[in-house]
Design goal:
469 residues, alpha/beta, Rossmann fold, 6-stranded mixed β-sheet, 16 helices, Ligase_CoA_dom, ATP-binding, acetate--CoA ligase (ADP-forming), EC 6.2.1.13
């Protein structure tokens, strides 16, 4: 394994090809300023003297001090000369945002990529890309988007797609995920997925590794890298290019070899690596691994308000390979003591436990949840509620108090617990839904918008732990 820690902690950064009005300023220069990057920042543009309040230089060779890292935003045809200047300047790493290389599939682009790689290797410069967004590392103050969170976390994301790297951080940030490092590496002309997986496997800041992978140029090394990383970290992979059309898209996107779906599935299954089907599911899975302890098994206790929804939750769980066991008579009796049938005939205590309108009674809900949690015949809890009518029917106060009760009861519950918060999608309700979600996540409780998403997550989450035993 090569030590590439220096890439994430450069003493100085030069942004080449930046101007007062182009994308390079918006995506790379301004975020360095916004994130209060502590090193020296050098805009490189021969046509101006100053950009964003910083002195601009005509070339990196004109920069008076050392330059550790370069972000390249110039035309592909100009990159060989820039790479030669990087070698002369003693640059350690370069991120090539520039596209127009091997991903085009054209001989000209392929030759150009080989040329810059040869120059860089001979001069000891490491390349990220080309055709990528580069690095987001909150601790170092490096980002490729001003809107990203400045707080660091323990989740890393490795992506062959620049667009997916941006979207994943945005999806994760609104659900309280925070990142140690995000790496968009594009064509992987030099540093590739194996280099970064090997690095993240030993990164003390990272506990969970999310990966968007289109293909690889070194299958044997990738297997070894993932095998070693899986021993130390939780890994969740979204594999792109699993269909015939997808494989063709991969070839034109990053020029990688996508491979056969069945081979990838068997490989991930053997290593106990969880697969996601889209970016939202990557975030869904990360929340479970971040907040939940390992369950003992697949038996789920379901509790909430609404019989029909309890039926659907049960079907979703069973269809995803989970077990929704019937409760024994002794347990039913305990629950009936909490909510007698004659008081609320709409209730059911079989599992799913439907508390009907009595569920809005916080004492009843609290006691029923605790009773179900204490039952040794279930391994984890699945709570569902709704804010679909929370604002215009006046139940938002009740939902608020119910969420507070769940958060408080979770402190004394030793089993994994997930919450499904349903919403009608009404724009007026959206801020309230976000607030409810945020409060639950801050309390360490994963929350999902539907039972099917929660069931899929829990099924794969449990599978991962059983595979590790």
């Amino acid at each position: 394994m090569q030590n590439i820690e220096y890439i994430f902690n450069p003493r100085s950064i030069a942004v080449v090809g930046v101007s007062e009005s182009n994308f390079a300023k918006l995506a790379f220069l301004d975020p360095l300023i916004e994130f209060k990057y502590k090193g020296e920042i050098y805009p490189i543009n021969p046509k101006v003297k100053e950009i964003s309040g910083l002195k601009a230089y005509a070339s990196i060779l004109d920069v008076p001090g050392p330059v550790d890292h370069v972000i390249c935003c110039i035309k592909a045809s100009l990159t060989p000369q820039l790479m030669r200047e990087c070698v002369i300047k003693g640059v350690k790493s370069i991120h090539l945002f520039t596209s127009g290389f091997s991903e085009t599939g054209e001989e000209k682009g392929i030759r150009l990529e080989r040329e810059i790689v040869d120059i860089a290797r001979e001069g000891g410069v490491r390349i990220i890309g080309p055709n990528c967004m580069g690095i987001y590392c909150p601790r170092s103050g490096i980002s490729f988007d001003n809107s990203f969170p400045k707080e660091e976390g323990d989740v890393a994301f490795l992506s062959q797609s620049g667009g997916n790297s941006v979207e994943l951080v945005q999806l994760g940030s609104v659900r309280d995920l925070r990142f140690s490092k995000v790496i968009s590496f594009g064509n992987a002309s030099d540093l590739n997925e194996c280099d970064f997986i090997e690095y993240l496997a030993h990164d003390p800041q990272t506990n969970i590794i999310l990966i968007y992978l289109e293909g690889t140029k070194d299958g044997k090394r990738l297997i070894n890298a993932l095998k070693e990383a899986a021993k130390r970290k939780f890994i969740i992979i979204l594999k792109g290019g699993v269909s015939d059309a997808g494989r063709r898209a991969v070839a034109s996107h990053t020029g990688a070899l996508a491979g056969d779906r069945s081979i990838w599935n068997a490989f991930f299954d053997q290593l106990g690596i969880v697969q996601a089907q889209d970016l939202e599911e990557l975030v869904d899975m990360a929340l479970a691994f971040k907040h939940l302890k390992s369950p003992k098994g697949k038996r789920v206790g379901i509790i909430g308000v609404g019989g029909g929804f309890g039926v659907l939750a049960t079907d979703n769980c069973e269809n995803e390979g989970l077990s929704v066991p019937s409760l024994p008579d002794k347990m039913k009796k305990k629950l009936r003591e909490i909510v007698p049938e004659e008081v609320d005939p709409g209730t059911s205590v079989r599992n799913p436990v439907d508390l009907s309108t009595s569920g809005w009674n916080l004492d009843i809900f609290s006691r029923a949840l605790k009773t179900l949690a204490d039952y040794e015949g279930i391994d984890f809890l699945f709570v569902y509620t709704t804010v679909a009518f929370g604002l215009y029917r006046g139940t938002n106060v009740m939902v608020d108090m119910l969420i507070d009760t769940i958060i408080e009861e979770k402190k004394s519950i030793d089993k994994p617990l997930v919450v499904v918060v349903r919403s009608s999608g009404d724009p007026e309700v959206a801020p309230f839904v976000h607030d409810v979600q945020e409060r639950l996540l801050k309390a360490g409780i994963p929350v999902y918008p539907s039972t099917i998403r929660a069931a899929r997550v829990m099924s794969r989450f449990i599978w991962s732990f059983l595979k590790r035993r």
